[in-house]
Amino acid sequence: MIGIFDSGVGGLTVVKAIRERIPDHDLIYFGDTARTPYGIKSAETVVEYAIENINFLVNHGAVIIVMACNTASSLAFEYARERFSIPIFEVVTPAVELALKISRRLRFGVIGTRATVQSGVYEKKIIENNPEAKIFSIACPLLVPLVEEGWLRKPETAMIVKKYLHRLKIRQIDTLLLGCTHYPLIKALIQRKIGKHVGIVDSSICVAEHLEKYLQNQFDRAHLLRKNGILRLFVSDITHQFEQMAKLTLKENVKLENASV
Ligand code: DGL
Known about the structure:
The protein is an alpha/beta fold. The protein folds into 2 domains: about 1-90 and about 205-260, Rossmann fold; about 90-205, Rossmann fold (3-Layer(aba) Sandwich), CATH 3.40.50.1860. The chain contains 11 helices and 10 strands. The strands form 2 sheets. A 6-stranded parallel β-sheet has the order 4-3-1-2-9-10, with helices on both faces. It has a 4-stranded parallel β-sheet with strand order 6-5-7-8, sandwiched between helices. Helix 2 (about 45-60) packs across helix 3, helix 4 packs across helix 6 (about 120-130) and helix 4 crosses helix 10. It starts with a strand and ends with a strand. D-glutamic acid binds near residues 37, 113, 116, 144 and 180.
């Protein structure tokens, strides 16, 4: 099975993108709803949670892991890679690769949680690839709770998005990286507020493409992956709100299972 985790509903945007590309593959998802959000926590705590989440998924049969969370990808990927011997995917690198491909003027905006932005991982990876690039990053700590709450079309959310993006607009970015897997759920709003001339990079789609290519070309233990199109959804706290958001995100009926890590 392919194991995927996030702090909450955001990682389901990755699940959806993966299911669109490789619908047969059995997936197991863990949403750490009891401990969300991750983006305002310390690096030590995020690393600890990420390791626990991976252990949970491995104990339930995962042989590949996708960190469907920019915060965990930014802070815990290196630790996880050292600790586990199975392939682990993170969401930052595939998004950076696409952003560098599509940008015309190398002026990048990055929006993400406070922890992701403070980690500086996007700047580092972009500059490593192209030292000429200009990167402007904004932490948007209010967006995760708004998305978890389902306030996707509320005028208050639109106002907050506009306020955050103003600082990127005046920098005349040409490419905007959605550095949090919750943000694809308000992608249309973000596009409206940043302007249609700005290209948006959605890490959930990028990581799904990487995973598909990896499975086709490199994974030598494909016999360990089951292909019955099954999706198991575990959360550390089952709530009606999460169930509603999961249905809305995946556009299918969901059955949540309780898990403690
Ligand atoms: N969706 C996650 C991310 O990509 C986590 C957000 C949070 O829990 O703060 O960063």
